[in-house]
Amino acid sequence: MDESTFQIDTRGEFSFPENHKFDAGFGLTEATIDYICDAKGEPDWLREFRKDALRKFNAMPMPTHWAPEGIKDLDFEKIRYYLAHGTAPYKDWEEVPDDVKRTFERLGVPEQERAFLAGVDAQYDSETAYNNMQEELRKKGVIFVNSTEGLKEYEHIFRPWFGKVIPVTDNKFSALNHAAFSGGSFIYVPKGVKLEQPLQAYFRINSESMGQFERTLIIADEGAELMYMEGCTAPKYDSATLHSGVVELVALKGAKIQYVTVQNWATNVYNLVIQRGLAMEDAEIRWIDCNIGSGLTMKYPAVVLKGRRARGEVVSISLAHDGQLQDTGARMIHAAPETSSNIVAKSISIGKGRASYRGEVNVLKGMNGCRNNTECDALLISAESRTDTYPAISVNGNASAVQHEASVSQVDEEMLFYLQQRGLTRAQAMSLAVNGFINDLVKEFPMEYSVELRRLIDLEMEDSIG
Amino acid sequence: MDFSQNLSMEEAFALAEAEAKLNAALQAASQRFNDAKIPDRYNEDWRFGQPAKHAVALAEILKTNVPARGSISVKCADSEVVMPVSAEDDELKETVNLMPTIGSDALLGLHIRRFGEGICLMLEENTEIKQPIIITYETDGLYTPYTFIMAAPGAKARIEEHHKCADGATMFCVRNIHVMEGAQIAVELHEHGSIDSRCMNITDIHNLGGAVQHFTSHAGHAWAREETIAEVYAASPGTSIELYSANRISGNSVLDQHTHQIHHIGGAKSNLLYKNVVDENGTAIFAGNIRVEAGAHCTDAYQTNRNLLLSEKSTVHSLPGLEILADKVRCSHGSASSPVDEEALFYLTSRGVSRANAQELISTGFLEDAYNKFRKSFDETYTSGLPD
Known about the structure:
Radius of gyration of chain B: 21 Å
Order of helices and strands of chain B: HHEEHHEEEEEEEEEEEEEEEEEHH
Oligomer: heterodimer
Helix content of chain B: 10-25%
Number of strands of chain A: 23
């Protein structure tokens, strides 16, 4: 593989000067919401909706009774809730500002490759800086825009599903996102359209204390198929930034959605993302999730299996380094008979890192013939690292079967010795072992991501052992 | 007892320091009970346990000054081993004060206010009691006994504890099992409930280098909660804790079981096997946690929860947890819930066994497996002895 494709700064320790046309300042109040609505030119119903969500956000308690300790340090007053270059998305690559282009270059995504990628919707801070849809997609009737544009231009499709999969009152962070959301993607794939190329979006946070509250809604109409890829890096800053997105997927009868995330925020980022999909009859939703960055990640991709024979799957890899807590997992709600789900989660804890699996599997009353299989494996690299597993499995009735298994292990000293004997450095040997541990999951990622992932793990190992 | 005259300066300081430490711990303990809230829906250790209903009901009845209504009977070949718990025994009371719970500090605090009933078993060094020691607590009202078992180094014994509740009765038992180096102790707890009876047990197993096998079985209670905390503080070759449970839940019964396997020190082994058969409207909750503390390297810890669901209204909640802070650890947990295997049912019905009987046969075998493993493990350690 050509080395030039890997120019991703894994630790995210870089930044560019900030130059924003819109800045709503620190803290979230009704005035902030008015500012966001005015800047984006939003209709009154949305303004009211946001304000109502803000009231609910303020009224709800923090989930401190179960959430990891680190969440207590989050100060909502020290977050900036809206920053943007402008409201009109850039349609042409030439119009993208130079500093944004430089960020993309640093991400290792050259212009030529970018143009080659299907329907790229790259997000720079709160607004889409680059939004160029391939002609082919448009011909098929696929809608791929940012959420602001989606609400404006396609209100008749967007609004009926807006906040339906993840309601405002679902939890405190859902309310927060409903109040302050900006950016994110809106995708609609019409009946029977199967997209061969994955759709991609790159997210970047480049302003200190900048919260990204992106909102993504993907609707796959009956029999449609698509894969969506989302990847993130962020520069390192001193004060904490918050990333609290909401991603809703709707797979109608027989549709298939695959959602791929590679998350590599800087370690001062709180990454609290709510991802949930609704799978109707015979539909399939797969979350393929990789968490490498951020200080604290709380992310439990969910599938509500709402139609008969629906299928849900979560494939999750997380890597926790010094000072990081990856609290990831999955949720499967079996709300229809004969539904099946599968969860495979692997985590690696390095140095003083802590990786947790937190999951929920629920087979509701009267739902017969449901199946779930959960596997969690953890790898501990050093004596100080930590791993936890907190699953909750509920089964109602005598016609469903669920099973859960978890194991914890270390890299075998003998294996390392064997590899070192043959001339590999300890870091190389360790990297090989770790790559082997997650190999079967990495294969689930699209090619370029799996290559990136392997490279990231090499770098992490070099850092920690080298 | 005053040894102060025979102590050197260093020893006197050490003693004073230990005393200060204990006092601080006791103060912290009493503060713990003052601060503790009756379990509510924000108490994660009561997840799925309907604390608003069950914890509150138990607390209400404990808060009243209903006198204890219960009886104790003990069968033991060596009568010197057995002592009743006295309300004046401050040392014993301190032990309870320092006991951990799984989310029920407030309830333990209420239990301590009624301290003064129960049985102490003191097994002397290298004694071996061949006949099982049988303790039976019975109540037709409210009873809050305390069982204290101390196995000195090398002691061997088998203990059976029976809790019997009459209709509408409540039994809340707190149990301490201390096992010293080289001791081998097997404890069985059998809960016998009846209509509308409730029970709760908080059991703390302190393993200081011995082998403990613990088994519980529940039948008949309308509501039962069990908190079992098994801790390894010192390890020598053969140090192990094994926890088994086999329960049958039917009617509208709820069985809420919580376990902690805590390895403070490395080199020991713990294993857990909890099995439930849930019929009719029954609910089984299992929440287990293995915690391997920082530095407790070379630990083996396993946890298995198996559930058979027999009716379409039966419910199982299973929360098997792991918290691993150490290295060179072998840990795993598994949880499976399913109906009775159709093929096994078919096999039996094709041989003339009715479907209901076939299901019964399979369930009985399923539960007996846990008890047999407990007995087998005990018999093996008991006859072979611990390795040197």
